[in-house]
Amino acid sequence: MKTKLEQIYNDALKDIENANVLNDIDEIKLNYLSRKGELNSIRKNLKNLSDDEKRTVGALANEVTEKLYAALDAKYDKLYRAELDKKLQTEKIDLTLDGKYYPQGKIHPITQTINEITEIFQKLGFSLVPQEHSPEVETEYYNFDMLNVPKDHPARDMQDTFYCTLAENIVLRSQTSGAQIHVMEEQKPPIRVIAPGRVYRNESVNARKNNFFHQIEGLYVDKGITMGDLKGVLNEFTRLYFGENRPTRFRSSFFPFTEPSVEIDVQCIMCQGKGCRTCSGTGWLEILGAGMVDVNVLKGVGVDPDVYSGFAFGMGVERLAMLKYAIDDIRLFFNNDIRFLKQF
Ligand code: DAH
User: Fold this and answer.
1) pTM metric for this prediction
2) DSSP category for residue 129
3) What lines the ligand 1 site, CB under 6 Å?
4) What is the DSSP letter of 175?
5) 109-341 adopts what CATH topology?
6) Which of 25, 112, 223, 336 has the most other CB atoms within 10 Å of its CB?
7) From ligand 1's centre to the CA of 314, what distance in Å?
């Protein structure tokens, strides 16, 4: 038994010495020290020995066990350090290397501008028209008829509006103003809404015109709404959007769905009103059309013009973004040139 124990001890020490990785340690423990290991099989046989032998062999078995644990612990420590060192060596971070480039997505400048303008009008008490009341594919009825645009009006000319060739009376909307009709059909006054969205025009594309662009429509209908309210709200808008000191002016104009009608100009930001190519020498740039909702439009949707009145407005989002950021070509918004888009 004693020699057997010495044999086991020497074998185990040899195995420990030969261990190369941490897993080997576990294996050695299993082979020699576990319940099914070699030392335990010796202990199981102790009962066959005389009391005297039991004592010496038992003591020796305990000593061997302790020594093996100590040897295993020491080896474990050594291997653990070695593996850690290796890991640190191979996974060392070189702080002088260039960082990896992770491109970051951004919100498109047109969407940013729409969001900014929407927030301004929300502060002024306007709410967003639900998407279903502001469709991009429209009937002539909403895009023109109900907005008091007669059949022979030049705005209906094939030059301006994209007509659907598959079905009659279907157009890609040329303006967001149709949303006014949808809302007034659904909702009784008081109404105070805005409707941002894309519109389409059959234009030849150049630096100032694209065949689609974005508008924000606004509508305020209630008892006793006057031109004073229109001026108040839209002046406040230009102040909040362009800042305190940008001069604006109201100019009388014409739209079939408003009477009276106005346009608002802001002083040209390229030349500060001196007159340049961007503003065709006038020193002013138009940003929106507006007016008091025409009596015919109110009657068409069953709103009594003797009780209610309102104002409406429509602004070009690209124009507003171009003026704020001094961008001189509308096509830049749609070319998807990352160098341009990155700046916003
Ligand atoms: N829809 C007009 C356009 O596209 C803009 C406009 C003008 C909208 C006056 C309005 C308005 O609501 O009252 O040119």
Assistant:
1) 0.72
2) P
3) 175, 177, 217, 255, 258, 289-291, 312-314
4) -
5) BirA Bifunctional Protein; domain 2 (3.30.930)
6) 25
7) 4
